[in-house]
## 1
Amino acid sequence: MTRALILGGTSDANLLAAKIARAGVDAIYSYGGRTRAPTGQPLPTRSGGFGGVSGLADYIRQEGITHVIDATHPFAAEMSRNAVAACADTQTPLVALERAPWVRVPGDRWIEVPDLAAAVVALPETPSRVFLAIGRQHIAPFGEKPQHAYTLRFVDPPEGALPFKADVIVSRGPFTFEGEVDTLRSRGIAWIVARNSGGDGARAKIDASRALGLPVIMIARPQLPERLRVESVAEVLAWLGHRTCLGA
Ligand code: 3Y8
Ligand code: NAP
């Protein structure tokens, strides 16, 4: 009998949860517990870490999980690595629902960097106005360049002091092109720092930057271990349905 664990927390995972619920597949949706009031799901949910690889392996055994779907964000590298290891340990089928990265198109002014530290280096020395759209967990390194006027965007209001003076927008997305053009223009933003999340929920700022001719410091995705990857919810359902009908 199929019992699927969805490692969620993204818009793709939300689409998948809706389809799996409609298909009547027994499944549980897992949040990392990063936000205060996550979007509701049409499935039973759990929230918070499992306790590393062994914690996830124990959870899989105790809950009788038969399939794991990693629908986390491309930058949720630790969760994805743990899923590969725990599914190998417990011999549990694993598939990753992973959106394709954005690719540069004519008009894009991207400065592609391998990681967060390189993104800080890529910012100019002369004071400018910089939009950091990378979530609250990754802003501290920009304190090395306090000369800039930063605008930050978070899902939840910041708790406690920020590592440097900044304007904060509290919004969870997904975002619209018009809304992003307005945000960038009204705040006189001259530089955007983004992560190559892919998908539609975060891409509006990339399209707005192109329209406004603004440079984007684009942080590449972390390397992930080899695992079965699909890009659509339909492929995940086929993968589930395929094994289910084989009774494996
Ligand atoms: C808790 C689930 C939906 C899902 C929406 C997607 C699209 C909007 C755009 C910007 C970039 C960023 C951030 C972002 C987007 C979607 C999707 C996506 C980027 C929620 C969610 C959780 C999180 C966690 C949060 C991170 C942060 C990243 C903000 C729910 C809303 C920057 C990713 O403040 C914090 O601590 C935020 C932490 C992880 C990046 C980070 O690493 O700091 N997402 N985002 C998930 C959990 O607990 O398991 O609350 O309902 C999901 C979404 N965020 O409703 O359709 O799918 O990508 N989320 C990035 O770099 O792109 C915002 O501002 O332009
Ligand atoms: P991460 O750094 O890869 O994960 C760190 C630890 O958080 C994991 O080892 C695990 O703890 C726990 N965790 C993460 N996702 C989890 C999940 N879905 N269910 C249970 N535990 C989870 O992850 P992250 O980048 O902080 O992302 C956290 C969550 O936000 C993910 O669900 C992700 O899909 C969502 N999200 C992230 C981004 C982003 O840019 N990173 C964007 C949108 C949404 P244990 O080791 O204790 O099990």
## 2
Amino acid sequence: MTTNIPTGSTIPENLSHEELVSRIRSLKKEMNALILAHYYTLPEIQQVADIVGDSLALARAAEKNDADVIVFAGVYFMAETAKIINPSKLVLMPDEYAGCPLADSCPTDDFRAFRERHPGAVVITYINSSAEIKALSDITCTSSNAEHIVRQIPADRQIIFGPDRNLGAYIAKQTGREMILWQGYCYVHDAFGEGPILDACRQHPGAELIAHPECREEVLRHAAFVGSTQKMLDYTVTSPCRSFIVATEPGIIYEMQKRSPGKTFIPAPKDPDNPRSVCKQMKQNTLDKLYRCMVERKPEIVVGEDLRLAALGSIRRMLEMSPS
Ligand code: 13P
Ligand code: SF4
């Protein structure tokens, strides 16, 4: 395999996969860099990362490390969160245009107006949001800790939850709390539909359906297990079941297969009317872009100090309120 680093670059062209991996590993030592990668990135990225995790694990890893440089292979809000936690570190991203459409579906002014319509409500915001939205929030959460955090809110307080309506509706159902939901969704998870999922369950009668809470309720109601990416992974390791229909971004199957080599993982089928169950943005992190960003020390994530301090409170509260 060769790279697609453009001609004219000071980085040699046509480096083999092995050469790229070896250069990334040397640079990592030279720069005292920590490479963080989400489970939805390509296997070649997961292979060179120091830590591969879900959003919560990666936010925690960004908080506690001795690196001088954090290289974040994920989507923009993840690298931005790492920078908010670590203002003195250089935070790099292989592709700064790898944004999260769910985060982008929540414009700051609209969210401020939404919040103002419910004065006194506690604002809990999914980490898949911009720094500006975090600054307007009381507590950030991820899909791993959302339920745990909502359970800590006094019963007499109203809760605003955004931007993911599917995760919000699922947590509302689990906790019995009424929540005022922002109507955003993740195009990857929202693409799974009940019909194709039930067809897959009929085709694989021995397989368990496992689903991420960003999926719609019509899918979640059929799942044997619902949980964040990390919890789904842990479930497949401990479950006595030998095969699983996996309703989330299929990048996680690489790690599931690694942890349970004898088990079978079937990506949940795409809905022919809405065939978008791969996260294009996560896959924008390629090995050559990862190498380039380390050599060039850019694109660098920059967050203005006022905004950083305003967003930090809700992230800190999340880390304090999460189960250990
Ligand atoms: P988790 O990493 O919390 O499972 O969230 C999934 C996701 O869509 C990340 O963007
Ligand atoms: Fe955003 Fe969905 Fe991609 Fe996660 S999987 S980064 S929520 S678009």
